């Protein structure tokens, strides 16, 4: 520990004197003044112009908006709407709700994000993960009832909004990438296999993955050939058509494609982008033709409630005949969903926003994104929505369509409202197998096949949370799989703190052991460090004196102070000594105020060894100072206060 030379001359502590350390009283008046200044600073920061611009990002681009921006945003919004309408209808069935709820959930988030979002590419709405989570945590015991899902949407928004206002987006960083990848892959497999029953035309298949797999294979003989043909045809067409939007045209250097070629390429890209809408419309047309000839062989969506959703405050109870489900029962039924769903929505949104902000070279603000999605979920719940978040597939479509600003969301939302008002009578012809194909084609790309190989090459230990999360998500349910995965990640993160490596440092001093702790001195490691030091300091049945290198200890807590006290007492009992060397200024201040008896601190390892060689223990017992004490060496003996 290095000190200023002038300070060393003027401070008795640094010249090796015994000092009396007393706990300093706190000046309450001064604290109140500081609190007042801090409060005024935060209020001032919250009320200035830049703060309002941060809270309402639309103010940063609306004044620069031009006709070219409007054209690009209109095309992007229209393209996204053609994607979200069939996806919304499909995802609502995945959530265990009637099809119209997918569209109820698709428009309000687009409007809200236009005003509050910081990413030009993000589009909010129903997603496969949120739909599966809704089915997992918010399935009402009453058929076709959305009360649980709407309550979950409201509370998800409240949690996300509070997290955003408190800048708690950092919590996402505690969920490691292997856990997120494993969870996403397991969820994608669960969702995709759950749609196999739709492709095969099977009914009454359970939702739990293992039981679902067993029952699906068991009922394969009951397959509806018409549904199978429609489903497989739709799936193949979707896969092939979506490849059209990713074609990389290789033109000869120095040549420019003609206008006709550019138009043809754009049409192909548009067909690939609108694959979901084209397949669903075509399949619905086939069903309508078959029904006109009295051929009723395909499983279809059936009647869908037409018109816009009712605007009302979410209900916290629901009645079914003579039975009423109370607020307490609804909250108890959702349970852990109030925590897991907001966090997953946050993870999905921030991951997408960061990916596209890096790709398109702009900056996003995670806390503001949390506020945007929180308010979007709160407001959406008044329009009968279930929880929404950012959609990767639709965000990719939005970006590839040349979107300029978040205003494209207004176009998307308006078209969805138009579809609800005008087109819902036609949705009844949509075959369930075609919707199942839409979901499978959307989620299959979420499975990350490369990450196990990458982790094997980079860090094999990270395969542990990946494998455990993946298996547990499939075996016991994805709601428990993510919790188990986060738990494993936290254990692996905290393990080095609880079991720090204690290294023996070579020294020329005889019968003196120099040890170095490489991960700090934190309360989970206290007992382990004491045991290891006892083991390492024992030699031929006797205990060596120890110089402990504390240069890696940057923080200290109450348990650490107790550990230091126990070390001193334990070494004294063995008739040996311990010196704490290289303590940082900050840590030393904490130790000084802790009033630790017989504490010996040295600035360097060399000074610590010198103290022990001069038989510090005997000289302290006689009330004398060691004659070889250096200027930067400190002895604190609280037992004899001045």
TrEMBL record:
GO terms for cellular component: membrane. GO terms for molecular function: secondary active sulfate transmembrane transporter activity. It is a multi-pass membrane protein. Residues 502-636 form the STAS domain. The chain crosses the membrane at residues 70-89, 124-142, 148-172, 179-203, 266-291, 330-350, 370-388, 408-427, 434-451, 463-495. Its main location: membrane. PROSITE patterns: SLC26A, STAS. Keywords: Membrane, Transmembrane, Transmembrane helix. It is found in: Membrane. Pfam families: STAS, Sulfate_transp. InterPro entries: S04_transporter_CS, SLC26A/SulP_dom, SLC26A/SulP_fam, STAS_dom, STAS_dom_sf. This is SLC26A11. It comes from Mytilus coruscus (Sea mussel). The lineage of its organism: Eukaryota, Metazoa, Spiralia, Lophotrochozoa, Mollusca.
């Amino acid at each position: 520990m290095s000190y200023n030379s002038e300070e060393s001359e003027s401070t008795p502590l640094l010249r090796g004197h015994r000092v009396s350390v007393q706990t300093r009283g706190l000046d309450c008046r001064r604290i109140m003044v500081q609190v007042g200044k801090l409060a005024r600073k935060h209020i001032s920061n919250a009320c200035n112009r830049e703060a309002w611009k941060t809270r309402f990002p639309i103010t940063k681009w609306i004044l620069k908006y031009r006709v070219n921006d409007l054209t690009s945003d209109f095309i992007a919004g229209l393209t996204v709407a053609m994607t979200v309408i069939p996806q919304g209808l499909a995802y609502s069935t995945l959530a265990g709700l009637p099809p119209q709820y997918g569209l109820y959930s698709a428009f309000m988030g687009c409007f809200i994000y236009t005003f509050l979002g910081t990413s030009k590419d993000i589009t909010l709405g129903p997603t496969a993960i949120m739909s599966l989570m809704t089915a997992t945590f918010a399935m009402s015991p009453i058929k076709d009832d959305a009360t649980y899902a709407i309550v979950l949407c409201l509370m998800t928004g409240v949690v996300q909004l509070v997290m955003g206002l408190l800048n708690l987006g950092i919590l996402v960083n505690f969920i490691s990438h292997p856990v997120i990848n494993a969870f996403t892959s397991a969820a994608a497999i669960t969702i995709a296999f759950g749609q196999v029953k739709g492709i095969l035309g099977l009914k009454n298949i359970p939702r739990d993955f293992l039981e679902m797999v067993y029952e699906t294979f068991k009922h394969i003989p009951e397959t509806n050939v018409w549904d199978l043909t429609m489903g497989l045809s739709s799936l193949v067409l979707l896969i092939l058509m979506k490849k059209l939007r990713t074609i990389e045209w290789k033109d000869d250097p120095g040549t420019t494609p003609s206008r006709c070629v550019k138009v043809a390429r754009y049409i192909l890209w548009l067909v690939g982008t609108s694959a979901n809408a084209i397949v669903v419309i075509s399949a619905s047309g086939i069903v309508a033709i078959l029904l006109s000839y009295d051929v009723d062989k395909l499983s279809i969506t059936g009647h869908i409630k037409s018109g816009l959703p009712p605007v009302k405050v979410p209900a916290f109870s629901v009645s079914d005949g003579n039975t009423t489900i109370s607020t307490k029962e609804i909250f108890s039924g959702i349970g852990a969903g109030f925590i897991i769903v907001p966090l997953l929505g946050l993870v999905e949104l921030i991951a997408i926003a960061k990916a596209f902000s890096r790709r398109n070279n702009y900056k996003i603000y995670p806390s503001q994104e949390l506020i945007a999605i929180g308010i979007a979920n709160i407001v959406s719940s008044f329009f009968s929505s279930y929880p929404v978040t950012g959609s990767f597939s639709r965000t990719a479509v939005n970006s590839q369509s040349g979107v300029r600003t978040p205003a494209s969301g207004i176009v998307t939302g308006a078209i969805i409202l138009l579809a609800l008002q005008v087109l819902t009578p036609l949705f009844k012809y949509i075959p369930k197998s075609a919707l199942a194909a839409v979901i499978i084609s959307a989620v299959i790309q979420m499975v990350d096949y490369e990450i196990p190989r990458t982790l094997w090459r980079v860090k094999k230990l990270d395969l542990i949370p990946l494998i455990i999360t993946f298996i547990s998500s499939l075996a016991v349910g994805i709601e428990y799989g993510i919790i188990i995965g986060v738990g494993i990640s936290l254990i692996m993160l905290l393990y080095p703190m609880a079991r720090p490596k204690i290294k023996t440092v070579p020294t020329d001093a005889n019968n003196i052991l120099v040890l170095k702790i490489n991960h700090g001195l934190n309360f989970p490691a206290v007992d382990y460090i004491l045991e290891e030091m006892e083991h390492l300091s024992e030699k031929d049945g006797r205990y060596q004196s120890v110089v402990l290198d504390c240069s890696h200890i940057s923080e200290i807590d109450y348990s650490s102070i107790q550990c230091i006290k126990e070390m001193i007492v334990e070494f004294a009992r063995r008739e040996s000594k311990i010196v704490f060397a290289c303590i940082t200024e900050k840590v030393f201040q904490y130790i000084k105020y802790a009033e630790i008896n017989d504490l010996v601190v040295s600035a360097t390892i060399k000074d610590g060894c010198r103290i022990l060689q001069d038989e510090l223990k005997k000289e302290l017992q006689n009330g004398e100072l060691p004659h070889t004490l250096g200027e930067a060496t400190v002895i604190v003996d609280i037992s004899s206060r001045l």
